[in-house]
Amino acid sequence: MTENDGYVVDAPPLASLPIAGGNERFPIRRVFCVGRNYADHAREMGADPDREPPFFFSKPTDAVFAAIEGAPRADGPRCVAGVVPYPSATNDLQFEIELVVAIGVGGTSIAPGDALAHVWGYGVGVDLTRRDLQAQAKELRRPWDLSKGFDASGPCSALVPASVIGHPDHGSIWLAVNGAERQRGDLSDQIWPVADLVSELSNYVTLGAGDVIFTGTPSGVGTIVRGDAITAGIDGVGDLDFTIR
Ligand code: MN
């Protein structure tokens, strides 16, 4: 019993993300994702982009694939998630570039006007999706868990504190595959800005420090295959580069 600190098997490691420019890490408690938060992406997925309440789904904490910090680009820190393994059980792996919000102060039923005070910082993430399994799940009215929440399905950059960059509400969000730009939107195009998302989510769960929210993707999502090199970034937040193997 003493070998395992009272647990019957080895306790799993705590998932975490690095902090840009430092040695500390952000511990991950839960990972929430937002569906359809940019009108042009809602349209490309065949949905009505009207401002209906946001909907949420989850990834397991260890889906987050933490970046290591690489050499800086001219315009900011470069984060490299290294090699992301191509998942099993799909023939249509797709990318979705997203602003990632890291919650620092928990709460429930948080008012939109108070919500940003609960945000510790931001990162650049990709919501990798088994699109074929997701389409099948939609068709059969089954849950999305295994189309969204597989191993390494959430590559993410180092986080930057809001105390340093503030709360970004505009600026380019983009992704390129093998150097060819595939997605470009602007944070100001979010149907539900960060404060509204945090507030709405806190009506469903008690948010806690360590919770992470992937805030949805602009249009241009598409398929990637083994060997593809993904470069992505958000103005004022950071960059994320990785390859698929
Ligand atoms: Mn997404």
What does this structure look like?
This protein has 245 residues and is α+β, with helices and mostly antiparallel strands. Helices cover 15% and strands 35% of the residues. It has 6 helices and 19 strands. The strands form 5 sheets. It has a 6-stranded mixed β-sheet with strand order 4-3-16-9-10-13. Manganese (II) ion (MN) binds at residues 33, 96, 98, 127, 214, 216-217.
Detail the topology: elements first, then pairings.
Blueprint: E1 16-18, E2 25-27, E3 30-35, H1 39-44, E4 55-59, E5 64-66, E6 68-69, E7 79-84, E8 93-95, E9 97-103, H2 112-115, E10 119-126, E11 129-130, H3 131-140, H4 145-148, E12 154-156, E13 160-161, H5 162-165, E14 172-177, E15 180-186, H6 194-201, E16 211-214, E17 222-224, E18 229-234, E19 238-244
Parallel strand pairs: 3-16, 5-12, 7-19
Antiparallel strand pairs: 1-2, 3-4, 6-7, 8-11, 8-17, 9-10, 9-16, 10-13, 14-15, 14-18, 18-19
The protein binds manganese (II) ion.
Manganese (II) ion is lined by residues 33, 96, 98, 127, 214, 216-217.
